Amino acid sequence: MSTVALLRPRAAQDLPARLARSAAATGHGHQMRTEDVTGWLAERARAHRFTVRRAPLDRLDGWSFAPGTGDLVHSSGRFFSVRGLDVTLDEGPHRHWQQPVIHQPEVGILGMLAKEFDGVLHFLLQAKMEPGNPNLLQLSPTVQATRSNYQRVHEGAAVSYLEHFTDPARGRVLADSLQSEHGSWFYRKSNRNMLVEATDAHVPCQAGFRWLTLGQIGELLRLDNVVNMDSRTVLSCFPMSAPEPGALHSDTELLSWFTAERARHDVDARLMALGRVDGWTRDADGIGRIDGRFFRVTGVTVEAGNREVTGWSQPLIEPCGTGVAAFVFRRIGGVPHILVHAKTEAGHLDTIELAPTVQCVPANWAPERAEDRPPFLDLVLTAAEGHGAHYATVHSEEGGRFLNARIRYLFVPADEDEAPVDAPPGYHWATAGQLNSLTAHGHYVNVQARTLLACLNSGAVRL
Amino acid sequence: MSTVALLRPRAAQDLPARLARSAAATGHGHQMRTEDVTGWLAERARAHRFTVRRAPLDRLDGWSFAPGTGDLVHSSGRFFSVRGLDVTLDEGPHRHWQQPVIHQPEVGILGMLAKEFDGVLHFLLQAKMEPGNPNLLQLSPTVQATRSNYQRVHEGAAVSYLEHFTDPARGRVLADSLQSEHGSWFYRKSNRNMLVEATDAHVPCQAGFRWLTLGQIGELLRLDNVVNMDSRTVLSCFPMSAPEPGALHSDTELLSWFTAERARHDVDARLMALGRVDGWTRDADGIGRIDGRFFRVTGVTVEAGNREVTGWSQPLIEPCGTGVAAFVFRRIGGVPHILVHAKTEAGHLDTIELAPTVQCVPANWAPERAEDRPPFLDLVLTAAEGHGAHYATVHSEEGGRFLNARIRYLFVPADEDEAPVDAPPGYHWATAGQLNSLTAHGHYVNVQARTLLACLNSGAVRL
After folding, report:
1. Which of A247, A259, A442 has its CB closest to that of B178?
2. Which residues form a coiled coil (chains A, B) (predicted)?
3. Residue of chain A with shortest Cα separation from B165
4. Are A463 and A337 within 8 A, CB to CB?
5. B440 contacts in A (CB within 8 Å)?
6. Is there a contact between B228 and B450 (Cβ–Cβ < 8 Å)?
7. Which residues 6+ apart lie within 8 Å of B282 measured at CB?
8. B6 and A421 in contact by Cβ < 8 A?
9. How distant, in Å, are the alpha carbons of A233, A347, A404, A405, B49 from that of A182?
10. Do B93 and B372 meet the contact criterion of CB atoms below 8 Å apart?
11. Is B203 at the interface with chain A, CB within 8 A?
12. Is A178 in Cβ contact with B262 (below 8 Å)?
């Protein structure tokens, strides 16, 4: 048997150009105009009855505090649990603490289906209700499924389009990597981020789904709370391979700096009994810190018509205040560079990941001593107040686990005085192309940085 | 300030050619002939007094069994400890067991210094004694240092050439990634694998060190027990970028298969008290399984002249029998492909890594039912006995932690009947270039597969 016909190129040479063409396609796509998307979302919201009500943690159907540990668990043993986490770091102003954390050791699928119409790649997005979203309904990827979800623990309806991702050989995989979720709220959670091009002649567009170009998604990313977090993280993994004439640091130097940062940090994070977590108390409204900072664990009951099941209860994590996630950027040799931060987050699998220059909830830092405030925070807040940012949009984080978790995402220009080429320890300059190439692999770029990268990939912001 | 001069290319275009030139330089290098290296090693062994004696675990100076847990620990709290591990897998013939494991949460440096002589890259190797090596003295990388080591917990001599790796900006970093160690014997251990080119005009060659070309190292890799494991893993990370006309699976398909394998596995491995590990007993000779399989924890006392300190005691893990690690390979469309295995190992940070087609100690599998024997094991053993392998050399694993841990490394050719293009579940065909490119990142390629990759990178074997 001759096997020559089995060989294929190691990389699809035309893919970056095809993605760039889709990113340039704004205003309207094959199926609808961008300006009609929010109206369509509003219509979907009217057509389906969604009711989300707060509920005490001890009155959530199917959930209970486990005897002995006080962990908040589901009677099926599936979905997720809220447990305790004991954290010891080797540097920073706070080196030891305990907190509640979401434990969900299974890997979910976040999958975006792509298809070419009129020579331009379109992506299939879904109008999806999630109870924690401030506006409930946002644009999700084609498929957003926990393993429980697609193994039918809900015993609800099948997940639409799932077969394109569980059997990717029926199409063409364009990206597929395990990416981390929020390291402050999840214990070692990652999801499979997939971009799959359908090669079927016809892919039916079900109710509640729409084909949009990458450029249209970029336009929608300029609006608050429209493109959900799961869409944003998949978008960050699109293999854009933008040509760049060079960078301040070679790819190997960037990896070497990353390796040194990961090697020098010790993070000891251990699961513990939720009932024994120090500094947190449980009352009728949920579990919170005595000083009211960081977040609360709270509960909701949901009634919905178009979800996998018709009603359920669940705990959610509710942050105390709107966060900020900002990339400081500048041109170096004419090439835009962004300042990444090697950030330890207790829930990450392996010490550090690359985070935005600034990532915090400013209100959490107000009572602190000035010298403990995160670097570049004041530069970013000043730009946000004075309209000096190139991009400033509020997005919400995973509405299936977080309640009203809003973050203001920003790109803030800086000069040599504000952000020198010789970056401070723990910070490093990288090009957008360098950061994008790292999303082919897991555990390099954290979820907040990936939202900002999605804005670059889709053209929502140009530096 | 103009910043144009600060830009550099993202990748060093000439590096693959420079490495290929060094791999082609065989027979002799700038400093010595290949055939003289083993004589030089023997001379080093004669010149320095090394004595390694077995010793009972309760008579190791500075080591003791901790009260309560029975963990084997050093009085300094540093170096490493031997603890217990409780493992639950979701598939395979053995789904739950307990075992001793080495716990050493710090990241060490394995660093190879490179320098050009007469237009050809040479690498600085060291004749290094390690107590677990069957022949004690082997060729190590320039620097092989635990964090305790280079932070001087030993209070011994400084580590030679360390400054090239702790301050890589003084030279040029060619590779730098965190790579896993043995997943059956270590709990989540990784080391920083570094290749740094010295840009100093003159680098003094200290006694006990020699500059060798990559081709010379390849010649030495055809000999048993000469090039130590730490050298081999650094060699596997050399960025060779061999041009290949194509592959059976594109790079993205390979990553997608890897991601699916990692996502579908659940591995639950938890540290536990060594004293409570089930199925293992402690006697005068150490800690072993009741049925004598797998490995023992044993102890040695060392007297040496040229090590960081002049004498010490330590535990070592001693495997029961010589292992086998083999890549099955074949040409597909004229391009050599190797069959990689997505293997769960309990001590790995994240479920699976890519392993050789066959990796086991055959003696461990003899009493098993035939259907539980590892796939391809019989093909590999038949080739090994009948001289059908393209490469068959015994190397020893990390002599600082393992005693007489010999593995026979093999490349075994196969045809469509023996190893079909449509690989069985858990196996996948990859080119050498694809596997090599993954070593730029951590936790893709396990340490045994990296030894085989080192043989390809250095030209010890050609497929």
Report:
1. A259
2. none
3. A260
4. no
5. 252, 255
6. no
7. B57
8. yes
9. 12, 8, 15, 11, 54
10. yes
11. no
12. yes
Separation CA A440–CA A438 (nearest Å): 5
**What is B15-50+106-236's CATH number?**
3.90.79.40
DSSP annotation string for B400-450: TTBSS-EEEEEEEE--TTTS-SSPPTTEEEEEHHHHHHHTTSSSSB-HHHH
Closest Cα in chain B to A268: B105
B74 is written with which tokens?
């050093």
Taking only the tens of pLDDT, chain A with its 463 residues reads 578 889 999 998 899 999 999 999 999 999 999 999 999 999 999 888 789 999 999 999 999 999 999 999 999 888 899 999 999 998 888 899 999 999 999 999 999 999 999 999 999 999 999 999 999 999 999 999 988 776 655 455 689 999 999 988 889 999 999 999 999 999 999 999 999 999 998 999 999 999 999 999 999 999 999 999 999 999 999 999 878 999 999 999 999 999 999 999 889 999 999 999 999 999 988 999 999 999 999 999 998 665 555 789 999 999 999 999 999 999 999 999 999 999 999 999 999 999 999 999 998 887 667 778 899 999 999 999 888 899 999 999 999 999 999 999 999 999 999 999 999 999 999 999 999 999 999 999 999 999 999 999 999 999 9
C-beta of residue A180 within 8 angstroms of C-beta of residue B259 = no
CA dist., res. B400 & res. B402, Å (int): 6
C-alpha B411/C-alpha B454 separation (Å) is 12
Q: Does A174 touch chain B (CB under 8 A)?
A: yes
| CATH placement of domain B251-265+321-457 | 3.90.79.40
Kindly tell me the number of DSSP H helices and DSSP E strands found in chain A. Answer: 11, 24
Q: Which residues contact B202 (CB under 8 A, 6 or more apart)?
A: none
B interface test, pick of A18, A176, A354 with most B CB neighbours within 10 Å: A176
Residue A286, sorted as left (phi over 0), alpha (psi -120 to 50) or beta, turns out to be left
User: Given this chain, do its domains B15-50+106-236 and B251-265+321-457 carry the same CATH topology?
Assistant: yes
3-state secondary structure (DSSP) of residue A255: helix
Q: Which residue has the tokens 């897991």?
A: A442
Angle at A314 between CA A308 and CA A320, to 5 degrees: 125
A166 to chain B, closest Cα gap in Å: 9
B259 touches chain A (CB under 8 A): yes
Distance from CA of B239 to the nearest CA of A (A): 10
Ramachandran sector of residue B70 (left: φ over 0; alpha: ψ -120 to 50; beta: rest): left
How many Cβ pairs within 8 Å bridge chains A and B?
150
Instruction: Determine the 3-state secondary structure of A202 from DSSP.
Output: coil
Please report the DSSP string for A37-82 in residue order: HHHHHHHHHHHS--EEEEE-GGGSTTEEEPTTT--EEETTS-S-EE
Q: Do A8 and B247 touch (CB under 8 A)?
A: yes
Burial class of residue A290 in the structure, from the number of CB atoms within 10 Å of its CB (0-12 exposed, 13-18 middle, 19+ buried): exposed
Mutate to test the interface with B, among A256, A415, A417 (most CBs of B within 10 A): A256
Q: Where are the domains of chain A?
A: 15-50+106-236, 251-265+321-457
Distance from CA of B268 to the nearest CA of A (A): 10
Which residues 103-162 in chain A show a CB within 8 A of chain B? 105-107, 109
Interface test with B, best of A106, A441, A444 (most B CBs within 10 A): A441
Asked if B352 reaches chain A (Cβ–Cβ under 8 Å), the answer is no
CB–CB contact B255 A440 (8 Å): yes
Residue A396 contacts by C-beta under 8 Å, 6 or more apart in sequence?
Answer: A132, A133, A134, A138, A225, A228, A229, A402, A404, A405, A406, A407
Model pTM score: 0.96
Shortest CA gap A425–chain B (Å): 14
* B335 interface with A at CB cutoff 8 Å: yes
